[in-house]
Amino acid sequence: MDRRRLLALVIGVPVALRLWGPASLAQSAEQRMAGPQSSNKPLPRSPGRPPRSRLVMLDPGHGGPDPGAIGLHGTQEKDVTLDIAREVARLLIDRHRVVTRLTRSDDRFLALDDRVAIARKAEADLFVSIHADSAPNVGARGLSAYTLSTKASDSFASRLAQQENQADRFGGRDSKAGRQIVKDILRDLTARHTRNASLVARQTLVRGAGRDLRLLDNPMRAANFAVLKAPDVPSLLVETGFLSNPQDEEMLRTPDARRRVARVLAREIAAVLSHRQFA
């Protein structure tokens, strides 16, 4: 049983029975389980589950009045992330036949909770937030990936998370506003599935990307990133490099280098979806 059907059974059924009655509930459940329609050929599914194309939600970090990190040469993170995310989306759709959406496709501000909500509403199978932040130390460079953890894996990841979680200040938003209240037992059951899939995704992506791209020292880390808190969507935050490092900034300023990063990310995201954890 997948994460969303577990969510529906534990919390949706009692509410739905009160509001709509058994007949309407059965029809609604059937529609939810069918998933979004797509012209793409669906990937094989495990027996007993309806076929549905995999959906990846790409989240270009920052945007609008929030530039994110700014390099010594004026490179803005919000531009780097949007350019890479657009190219990853194009490659996933054209080369890998993966249904892909963006949380933002232009230069606009999105609160962290809104980014999570977009992925959950779309019933995404994987959420990848793309960044190119300022690292705690100027010598840090290379690609890295992060999963959610209430306890950070190290001080480097903790400081990155604290920095990222301040993004909502540009929109005048309370970072706690709009968070859905979920029963503890439901959150525990659902989050266990989600966390395992997130860990598989992090490992697959980093190991694959390391064949072609420079990696940060200890490239698989974890911290309390607000944008990774969907309890039912496996989520990763990928740092494509750090604009605080002159060499990384020089690389990320170059369109050809960004295309190369996008090709690797698209290839490895497609590999993640082929793992049995996402079947």
Helical residues, percent: 40-55%
What is the count of β-strands?
6
Please, what is the oligomeric state?
Answer: single chain
The major beta sheet can be summarized as: 6 strands, mixed
Trace the largest sheet across and list its strands: 2-1-3-6-4-5
The overall number of domains is 1
Write the CATH homologous superfamily: Zn-dependent exopeptidases
Distance between the termini: 11 Å
Instruction: Please name the CATH architecture.
Output: 3-Layer(aba) Sandwich
Instruction: State the shape.
Output: globular
Ranges with pLDDT <50 over ≥5 residues?
9-50, 175-183
Q: Beta-strand level of the residues, as a percent range?
A: 5-15%
Q: What would the CATH topology be?
A: Aminopeptidase
Please count the helical segments: 8
What is the residue-mean pLDDT, rounded to a whole number? 83
CATH class: Alpha Beta
Based on secondary structure, the structural category is: alpha/beta
Rg, nearest Å: 19 Å
Order of helices and strands, N to C?
A: HHEHEHEEHHEEHH
